[in-house]
Amino acid sequence: MSSEAVTTVYQVTGMTCGHCEGAVSEEIGSLDGVTSVKAVASIGQVTVISAAPLDDETVRAAVDEAGYELTGRAA
Most C-beta atoms within 10 A of its C-beta, which of 1, 26, 34, 72? Predict the structure, then answer.
């Protein structure tokens, strides 16, 4: 198994403020293997650094739990 971290950027709709960023970051941050989460409401993106690639549906469920919608990976 590779020891290199994996960085993935997701598009999330519904975030409008710092509280939103915190809620999304907290939910995604609780997933196994996630080492860093940076949510930016102004552009609707969440950058996730993890020890291994994450399953998109697992991330989607975490974003849903926070009350927002994952619309896909950023281009």
Answer: 34
